[in-house]
Protein 1
Amino acid sequence: MFGKSQGDAASVQEHTFVKYSVAPAAAEAVSSISSGLSIIGKIIGHGALTIFGHVDGELHASTVVIAEGAQMEGEVIAEELTVGGHIKGTIHANRVKLTSTAVVEGDIFHRTLAIEENARFEGTSRRNENTIDTPSRVQTNRAQLQAESTDGNRKGNGAPDGLSP
């Protein structure tokens, strides 16, 4: 194993055993947007999302991390949001944490809000007991997308109005 002794290999195997013995079926889906990627539009997901790049639009996910150096412009809706990068827009999240490298320009609607020293926040903060209900909002958006897709398929080729041959 690349110059490691037998003792090291045993401890790695033991650690791996402990790591995977904890309910792998309950693992949450994790996605990321890399630092070299820019996305314009709407992102909807059930699991965790870490953004290292740039997003311009809407973001709906259960757990979101805007990493240091990342940029988000638009609305963020999440159960839990950790910001280390720059957000310009509205935030709706039950739990919001602004780390020391965070820059937020906009309004935050939250149940709990934690702001570390040196974080920058310019906007308003409103505490709401039931800020979001992520699963129902995501399901509603997914149902709307499916309905739009079904309507397009009924028109013949799935093309939007005016684009059919």
Protein 2
Amino acid sequence: MKTHAVVFPEPKRVEVREMEVPDPGPDDVAIRTVYSGISQGTERWALTGRYGHFDVDFSTYYPCSPGYQAAGVVEALGSEVTDLEVGDHVFTLGTRFLAPEHKYPGPCQASHAGHLVASRSNITKVRATVDLAAASLYHMAGVSRHGVRLTKVQPSELVVVIGLGMIGQMSAQAARRAGARVIATDLVPLRVQLAAAHSADRAVDASSESLEAAVLEEAPDGADVVIDTTGNSRMFERCLGLIRNEGRIAMQGYYPDPISIDFHRTHLKRPTVTFPCGWDDEFNDELADDMAAGRIAIEPLITHRIPFREATAAYELVLTHPERSLGMVLDWSEAGRQ
């Protein structure tokens, strides 16, 4: 079966190509994609060649297809799949194409395609009442929940989240779900407003307010945990200044540049620092239940639902004006079957 798909042929170039997906094997499921979720930070680094030093050897990493999250409707089942039905709503990681030269490095798992064929083990069913645009951003929530778990956020702790893109918003929600009180901050007013409405107990507009003052007002000795999602390698020192003695720092962003640490200052404060990577797919059923029950807010954070044919414009927005969007999904409703 042929389908449209987003392809990065080389760094800084986006195309929508016709690709071919295989027929489903015995343990596979064929899915008609309704929405695929763009991970704006990670996919920006992959597009520019800065993720994992993709730009060192182009031929090793390109052509590739970005994305690691999509949601849609089951169209066909392999002979060994007995716990799903045609018509079920699901979310999944991505697909593979019948193109031997195509690469799948790191976050480039080919979720941005009109049809997906995936192993049953990589698929989670969601209730029909769940907005599939929100479901297509499920790994944004999974990444953030993994970071909160790894950093061992506890009830009644004060958690500071820096950066309120989707990972920051989801980190704030995950910390609150763990019972913590959350102060969150960003320089973009829209993101601060949405965090105040859906993600944090207190949202600080860093363009006009002091985060440090807000933290000291509630915790004179410093926050228990700081979660940085900015991807700015120079943020570590600021995080260190915000935590209490023996507090915790989660470097939750993706940092293409090296992180420098002043050992002596860090040594005296005795922090625990975590470097979360990826997500905990073993909790996807719990995440799907939370979506259905309204215990997680993703849909209100979606600012852009972009037709897949306009993918090049979508990534141009990601590269040049990230402050203009928050949740971004590609709409595949007009992809059709070929």
